[in-house]
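Data availability (excerpt). The following record was deposited with the supplementary files.
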Amino acid sequence: MDSNILFCNRVFAFAYMIEGTSGFGTPVALGAPMLVSSGHDPAESVVTLLVMDSFATVWGGVGLPTWFGFGSLFPIDEQADAFLEISYKAGVCLSICAFLLFLPLLHIICPWPLIRNNLLFIFLSLTTVVGPSLGLSFVTESFPTLIGGMVGCVGTAMLIKFKIGLSQLEDVDTKNGENLEIGSVSEHSSIAKVRIPNEKPILERKSTGGVGKDEVVDSEYGDDNSVDNNTKEDESFDTTDEHSRPMVNTPDDLLTGSQQEMLERELGPRKEVGEGYVIELLGRTSPIWLIVLLLVLTRVEDIGLKDYLTRKEPNFAIYFGSYGTFRLSASLVLQIDNILSYPGLNWKYELLYMPFIMPFVLVSLFTMLVYRKDLQRSPKQIAGIVARRLKNPAIAVLGALCLVQLMIRIDTSAPAFILGTVLADWFQEGFIVISPLLGALGTFFSGSTTVSNLTFGTIQMMAAESIGISRTSVLALQIVGASAGMGICLNNIIAGCAVVGLSISEGAILKQTYKFVVGITTITTLVMLAFFIRF
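Predicted structure:
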């Protein structure tokens, strides 16, 4: 069975799940090194993860792009229905895009013969991720990505375990008639760090113009020079060449005898079922399932916790004169009413309900407490790393929020109203063609689907009202376009290249990813016209 196909589908499910918990480019930062560690080209790995992330950020971290990005566009009593409509309309579009574009996406790092011989496995694995997400999008905007990714990880593992839809490696021939020998071990992997003297795997790169020009690189595992050679830049790398793949030829008994012992010393002995395996599994995966559990408990209204976490009464108030009135309730709901004496200009933050303290901070503290002996950095260092990573997104979100508030105030004199009306007058019904492109443009500049929605959501809504079509349909185009824009997001490209040690211009990556962005926006427009938009 081919490890390429198995690993790529597992990485897709994993990236999908990570997007549901954190967002802000985390799937690219975590997923690209995983592909590189399995022997794939660094540039191709970054491109693959950027496009994979484009299918997941519609719902982002617990629905943030929807309920936060569009929160100011609807009255409170209309938000639930409006968000749900946007969610399932976007879900239908992205699901269709995923099934149409996933094979070309896999072809970036896998040759067509392998893809063709494993079609059943690929589509079944894709269904385990996209299917639950689509189903949940009709019920909630908060959990489709998170639950879809988790189900996909388990489903893909089951497909691999029972070998459903998988072909044997020896049955797959390349174009020149030779069997493809792609190993799952590269010089970047943890296994590669475990070396036995005089056993020297050969890392070959057969290149016809790809990112590393080296014909053959012969080096021991962990050789820094070989890593540098494999990450040399070339802006015109070609991901369509099936033979420009890094290949590792190792002895059949790579992990036998003393090597297996060294591997166990490096990674720890593998636990068997019944030897504390289940407890260890639950403990190591607790950050994920605890986040899901807390989110479900606090968001399902029938449970009743949501009401307790969002109560505004009782509260105490502090009057700040013309600056407004500050209120803090027993449920830690912060409010500022009549800001700068402007009637109706209020601010509210539900500290325990918004996905910040509950669940992320609590789960992080719990995990650090339980595994404090395994920490490689102090809590202070971890907090510093988190603060530095949040700096740029926080600045972008703050700027976008200020811009949005300036654009939507003063009713018909608001800049958003004028821009939306003018664009609608110019393009008429043709506005729906540029609607998803505006969303992608916002993500390209800001690096966030949420910020793109904050920036262009009001303009999209005004244009929809001017043309006379469904507001939620146009906003669904906006959010799908913003999600597709993750493929051309400069912040993610820079971060992805940095974590894999790749020195290459952003333009070389954009040349590969823009095709998928155009594909997603085009397919989405056609789907919306076919099913949801009526003039």
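Summary of structural features: The CA atoms of residues 172 and 178 lie 9 Å apart.
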